[in-house]
Amino acid sequence: MFAIITVVGVDMVGIIARVSAILAERGVNIASISQTILDEYFTMMMRVDLSGLKVPRADLNTDLEKAGAQIGVKVTLIHEEVLKAMHRI
Amino acid sequence: MIFTPFEIRETVRMFSLQKLDIRTVTMGISLRDCASSSGEEARRRIYDKITRCAERLVRVGREIETEFGIPIINTRIAVTPIALVAEASGDSDYVEFARTLDRAAKTVGVNFLGGFSALVQKGCTNGDLTLLSSLPRALAETDLVCGSVNVASTPAGINMDAVRRMGQIIKDLAGRTAAAGGIGCAKLVVFSNAVEDNPFMAGAFHGPAESESAINVGLSGPGVIKSALEGLAGAGFDEVAETIKKTAFKITRMGELVAQEASRRLGVPFGIIDLSLAPTPAVGDSVARILQEMGLEHVGGPGSTAALALLNDAVKKGGIMASSHVGGLSGAFIPVTEDEGMVEAAERGCLSIEKLEAMTCVCSVGLDMILVPGDTPASTISAVIADEAAIGVTNHKTTAVRLIPAPGKVPGDRVEFGGLLGGGPVMAVNPLSAERFIARGGRIPAPVHSFRN
Question: Which of A33, A59, A82 to mutate to test the interface with B (most CBs of B within 10 A)?
């Protein structure tokens, strides 16, 4: 079961490391990453596999949100089915 | 990454910035098999059936919300019009039935339950009459129950006896809830050509021709549409319509996804998506602001009807492609107190009831959530209902009236209901009398073009 995590915020050292650590701790495998910096804004999109998730989904959502707040980035998680429904016929 | 960054960003923005959400997941439940010659037995069956069928509804709604990241604002229930269910009991009033529905709704955890209703377009049965006379107490003395009465249809014409009664009932209900600004009337809708699968309150009921149960989903996305138009200053209407259509498609796909998932998890058949644009009082969630974005100085000015006609039509075209089953009201809603753009226009004196009436000819609902002076005569309210009924019946569309005569208030006074019901100014009503007109009663016959056999 795949989801897309987006991380947007002011660039700083350690963003990828921080987010990846949270995912790894919770059994979420990263399938692919794309990341770029636009006008000093860090934008990362990760395609992740939630099938091995070790904690409740709600906890994952909260943990990502909290971590994002701590390092000054906005983290959102969108189920791939949502993107498929909206952008593919 | 099988989606482009553009697509991902667009979706993220819709949820985080533009207030895209599922307004309601509504479970329709048939109570036809709960009828009994004993009122007490019928109520016991009603309570058991609702609490059994909808036991997991709220929880599943939250699960889907968490897993898909799509906010689901409300979970609700719609039942068979109670006049049909309670009639066999011979009870002299149905207030206890309303209390039973209220209890069941609270047990299950939904925030509204619709269906304390009657379908009287052709005339009233004894059960219908009992339901009508129970309405003021039933809605004043319960919290979560919503009611509706269908007084007209294109094939049947307009039941003017019922129209006269509804003016009186609305005044009575307002008086009973005067301490809260007449809020009881926010839970009562008078319909023409009511649909049987509308998931929105207060007019939701599970029509008598519906199956055992169904999951119907109501959308919301005015903010998304407005944002989509923001880049189109100066563009022609062709491009405006096309943009709205494509955006409505994307919004509706969310509803389809949630509806299919809710249906699967609850084991209840998927009914329909109602692809209406339903505003809330929150900033960024207004249908009126879409019309302003199209170029109107304020909603209510010249051009408002044309703008709304375009919006309503484009929403339907995009939404129909996006869903396997479309139903309900499916268009643009223009409830005054529930839309901050409408409220501002009303406060500035830009919006009149007459203009709203014109706008109801081209959108999905009618005169909705409009505060009128507390001393508005019942016959005037009935006449307004008759006007809306005529529009609906003549044009083969659903129209409705949800007027709130605010006790003790005059035009310009502000009434606040709070939450999704919002608040706003009392609007002026034409003071000319319709007393003699409404006193006639009887039926206005069906229009000639309704005869299609």
Answer: A82
